[in-house]
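Dear Dr. H.,

I hope your travels went smoothly. While you were away I took the liberty of generating a structure for the chain from your last submission, since the lab meeting agenda had it listed for discussion. I wanted you to have the full record in hand beforehand rather than looking at slides cold. The sequence, exactly as received, is reproduced here:
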Amino acid sequence: MNVYTLSEAKQNLPMLLERALFEGEIQIKYRVGQLFALKPVKPTRSLLDIVGVNINLSRNKIVDVVREMREKH
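The corresponding predicted structure, in token form, is as follows:
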């Protein structure tokens, strides 16, 4: 794993982001010797983000079913 100085990180941030994405993590050394890790975060998905289901029903058939359900209740 490569370690970059803060100065290198400032000058080459886009390249370092790509490298972190490819390698999983890079480290940046701060002035006083502290190391910081830069790594990509996996995107979170919403619980409402679901794949649609193709049920092959026409608009008219769906309207008929909804009307029928309303009449029953």
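Two observations you may find useful: The mean pLDDT is 91. The longest strand covers residues 26-29.

With kind regards,
E. W.
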